[in-house]
Design a protein that fits this description.
glycosidase, glycoprotein, EC 3.2.1.23, six-stranded antiparallel β-sheet, single chain, signal, GH, alpha+beta
Length: about 475
């Protein structure tokens, strides 16, 4: 089977486009293939997203708690007579979680009961997810609520409360409950149940600050700077993921200035400095602008010998992948106003932060880390004296036997973690709920493994991360958390 579109009826109504995809599919797959579409179980979605006739099978998806059979009866109307086997192409075994929410958990018994409603009457289902996973790097998505400012980025983990967990574990009630139901409705005996993957806690890894992000991406002599009168979105810089640094100069006023950025996608940290002075100790953090809480920032008066410089580091927190705001550009998408007047003449630098060992712009982080780790470990940072600054922290995780593990980021703020150059994804324990990042065994090697952390705000005061043998979704405040129910 080959799916030519997924929930297209939620977005468009273009039969010529769908027929074009069918021709492409046959060209690559031949004629001995069942092609199908999937759309949500409503008449409007199916009218828009399906292809009339019997050349392409029309399947449906719907919430696990819905009665499946009215959806299958509707599905039947969009297939040729006698050619509509009931098929739920997304039977939700769990649900995803956004930053700042409680972990989404669904009841194992209820989930299994709804699967049985389908199988007991000779229906079919695709488990979504059968096996939870991980949004390594920057591949986590996002959703929106009432409008595009009601932005909800996904966790790095895509465990999904699936029967097979992010790390491959199956020793849980949901796996057992679904297996019992499947066993009742299959003629062939099920394979034996495997054991959980072996995991190991390697303990504490001491880190040290090796370099500020702004040291690495000094826009005065760094290749790849784009200049423009007004800020450009990330896509205009040929970039899809990661960060963009926006830099401009302005004249400081005696009573300070008010900075306002109407449209930021998705989160911007704002710093100021005196460009004529030595960088070290000169950069001052003044605030954060977020897509979901966009408020003006007061820039204090600074006594620079010439103009002031403003740095705006914008993070792409994940592209929206469902709903009417799916065309989701990133970066600064509006003028930047200073006391009501647009600030012009910008320099912009792409900082994609793919795997460190693949990104030529910043692969110096690796060599610098090895060099600096030979020096004495710097003194502990005291949080009360710490000023937020994006910076790299590096250390060695020593592995005696290669197994899966998890890195705990309790005590850290927000950032991105790498092991041996591989981007593990975002951590944000201050917002939660995810505390630990999953580290599959193939990323590791026996002996020393280089850990590089880009911390955007405040590091752990003791400058360490801990390798543990379990996931943890208990970080952050639950005061503003929400629970998703299926």
């Amino acid at each position: 089977m080959g799916q030519i579109e997924n929930e297209f009826g939620s977005y468009g109504d273009d039969k010529a486009y769908l027929h074009h995809l069918v021709r492409i599919a046959h060209r690559h797959l031949g004629d001995d293939v069942i092609l199908y579409t999937t759309d949500g179980g409503s008449r409007e979605n199916l009218n828009k997203g399906t292809i009339p006739g019997d050349a392409v099978f029309s399947a449906v998806d719907f919430s696990t708690g819905d009665d499946p059979w009215p959806n299958f009866m509707l599905q039947k109307e969009f297939n040729a007579p006698g050619k509509s086997p009931p098929l739920s192409t997304e039977f939700y075994t769990g649900w995803l979680t956004h930053w700042g929410e409680h972990t989404a958990n669904t009841d194992a018994t209820v989930t299994a009961a709804y699967l049985e409603r389908i199988l007991s009457r000779n229906g079919s289902a695709v488990l979504y997810m059968a096996h939870g996973g991980t949004n390594f790097g920057f591949y986590s998505g996002a959703n929106t609520g009432a409008d595009e400012t009601d932005y909800k980025p996904d966790l790095t983990s895509y465990d999904y409360d699936a029967p097979i967990k992010e790390s491959g574990d199956i020793d849980n009630p949901k796996y057992q409950a679904l297996r019992r139901v499947i066993a009742k409705y299959t003629a062939a005996p099920l394979a034996s149940v495997p054991s959980n993957n072996a995991k190991k806690a390697y303990g504490l890894t001491k880190l040290q600050k090796t370099k500020s992000l702004f040291n690495i991406v000094d826009t005065t002599d760094f290749d790849g700077v784009t200049e423009s009168e007004n800020p450009l979105p990330m896509e205009s810089l040929g970039q899809m993921f990661g960060f963009v640094l926006y830099v401009s100069d302005y004249i400081s006023k005696a009573n300070g200035s008010l900075l306002f950025i109407p449209k930021v996608h998705d989160r911007a940290q704002v710093f100021i400095s005196c460009p004529s002075e030595n960088y070290e100790g000169n950069l001052q953090y003044v605030g954060t602008v977020a897509r979901w809480s966009n408020t003006p920032i007061r820039l204090p008066h600074t006594r620079c010998t010439s103009s002031n410089r403003i740095y705006i580091l914008v993070e792409n927190m994940g592209r929206i992948n469902y709903g009417q705001y799916i065309f989701d550009k990133k970066g600064i998408l509006s003028p930047v106003y200073l006391d009501g007047e647009p600030l012009q003449k910008w320099k912009m630098l792409s900082i994609p932060f793919h795997n460190l060992n693949e990104d030529q712009k910043i692969n110096s982080v690796i060599s610098d880390a090895y060099t600096d780790l030979g020096k004495s470990v710097q003194k502990k940072l005291k949080n009360k004296n710490y000023h937020p600054e994006p910076a790299f922290y590096t250390g060695h995780l020593t592995v005696d036997e290669v197994k899966d593990t998890f890195l705990s980021f309790r005590g850290w703020s927000k950032g991105v973690a790498f092991i041996n150059g591989f981007n593990l994804g975002r951590f944000w324990p201050t917002f939660g709920p995810q505390c630990n990042l999953y580290v599959p065994a193939p990323i590791l090697q026996e002996g020393k493994n280089l850990v590089v952390i880009l911390e955007l705000e405040a590091p752990n005061a003791e400058l360490f991360v801990t390798s543990v043998d379990h996931p943890d979704f208990t970080c952050g405040s639950s005061a503003n958390s929400q629970v998703h129910h299926i």
